[in-house]
Amino acid sequence: MKIAKFLLIIFCILNFNFQSLLADEEKMAKGLEIFNETAGCAACHALKAAGSDANIGPNLDTVSLTEELVKEMVTHGLGVMPAYGEGILTEEEIDIVSFYVANSAGK
Amino acid sequence: MKKIKKNINLKRRNFLAGTASIAGLAATASVIPINIANSNHSEGSKGLPEFISWKDRDALIVHSDKGIETHRSAIGESLITPNRNVYIRNNMPTMTDAQIGNRDNWKVSIQGVKNPKTFTLAQLKKLGHTTIATILQCSGNGRGFFEHKVRGSQWETGAAACVLWTGVPLMAVVDACGGIEKDAVFMTSAGVDHEPTGLDPKKAMVERSVPKKVYKDAMLAWEMNGVPLPNAHGGPLRMVTPGYFGINNVKHLGKVAFTTKESSVKYMKSSYRISPIGKKGSQYPSCWEMPVKSWITRPTDETGTVKAGKVQIVGVAMGGTRKVRSVKVSVDGGKSWKRAKFVGPDLGKYAWRQFVLETSLTSGTYNIASLASNGRAKQPELRMENRRGYAHNGWKDHSVNITVV
């Protein structure tokens, strides 16, 4: 019985990690799509992970980024960069692309 | 031709659009091109973007490939900031030699004058010639000291430089065009560095209007500190607006117009406006005249601890659009002040002055501050809070802590 309980706990932990890993993988995949297509970030920004080497905005591989900072910039824009939070992307899309950029930059 | 990865196929995209729950990556690696040429902003071997690989890496702090700051200690060792140490702040990618072509054939049109004309750089060189020293300073220099969350490069002291420009006085160009139209109120300068990007000029063109009076001291510059104006600093031709923030010193200059209204592009209308935190809009003041300011450059904690005994406290001071008159230095965080001595040549009211205070310090920690005055205004203790962190000249944030052993 004890062994069964132990195995169940291990299964739950593994399953939880697997689920969260899967969720992250999904976010990365969708983030790449938003980056390259939906929002077209790749038209202005270099990001090796996305295969982009554009040079209008800062090279995202050479700046230190947090997810929160990316979200802020994407939502409100800066200089020539549009405010994607003003009707271009949904809040969920901004969350996903920010997660993607923060976890792809410099990799 | 630049290429981007497209790791997700169309079926997958439709699936993604329809549901939030999706399986893992089923990547089909295909490649689609985008018609925006990349040329010179790739990362170079020194950790600097390729387009400024000639700069001194040790003198610079890289915030991004379009925001590169000069270390506090790399500014004030001499009066003029060497080109290899001068900061970079680009809104558009620096134009390449190929995009610029023959520099002498570079064209600038002069409008809002009695006889509008287009001059080549070679023609400008025949109209007049002078050299002036001015301070080039980004509007956001000091942004890194603001405590609210401010977007943009977190500059501290090093988005500034004192530069010798050589070129033609704008007055001479205006005279060659028969003078300014009577109803003009602004001098509006536009760069052409947005053109290769193909972006909408209303959003991407760096066009800046300043009060018309600026033309009297302005120049069209083709040399910077004795060498042809580097592309990274706006070569082959740049507008120089003495006493005004860097953004008004338009790079890759293609047009100067005397206008009745301010430019309506984004960089004039909504960007570079000094607005309260949480508010924005074109009703707020634009980043035009620089305020009086100073900061310590040596000794600083970047060079390690300082030996007890005689110490030379060095810094730079600027008066904005007026001559800087005095600088006081404090070693106790502003409780007491001593007048510093200006040293080195006076290159005019638009250049900064170096100052020195010789003092003796015993072991301990010190907060060293400087406070400049231009006779009409002096630096405030605190920053003027604003949304984008512009025009910071408060002395307290710019002070440095040193340890004397």
Question: Helices, strands, pairings?
Answer:
The complex is a heterodimer of chains A (107) and B (405).
Chain A: H1 2-38, E1 46-47, E2 52-53, H2 67-76, H3 91-104
Antiparallel strand pairs in A: 1-2
Helix pairs in contact in A: 1-3, 2-3
Chain B: E1 2-6, H1 10-18, E2 30-34, E3 60-64, E4 67-70, E5 88-89, H2 97-100, E6 107-111, E7 117-120, H3 121-127, E8 130-137, E9 160-169, H4 170-176, E10 186-191, H5 201-204, E11 207-211, E12 219-224, E13 227-228, E14 238-240, E15 253-259, H6 266-269, E16 293-298, E17 309-318, E18 326-330, E19 338-339, E20 341-343, E21 353-361, E22 364-373, E23 400-404
β-strand number of chain B? 23
Helix content of chain B: under 10%
CATH architecture verdict of chain A:
Orthogonal Bundle
Uncertain regions spanning at least 5 consecutive residues of chain A: none
What structural category do the secondary elements of chain B indicate?
mainly beta
Average pLDDT of chain A, rounded to a whole number, is 86
Number of strands of chain A: 2
Largest sheet of chain A: 2 strands, antiparallel
Distance between the termini of chain B: 57 Å
Q: Which geometry of chain B do the CA atoms define?
A: globular
| Widest sheet: strand ordering of chain B | 7-6-15-10-11
| Computed Rg of chain A | 18 Å
Please count the helical segments of chain A.
3
Q: Would you give the CATH topology of chain A?
A: Cytochrome Bc1 Complex, Chain D, domain 2
Tell me the strand percentage band of chain A.
under 5%
According to CATH, the homologous superfamily of chain A is: Cytochrome c-like domain
Mean pLDDT reading of chain B: 89
Structural class of chain A: mainly alpha
How many helix segments of chain B? 6
CATH classification, class level of chain A: Mainly Alpha
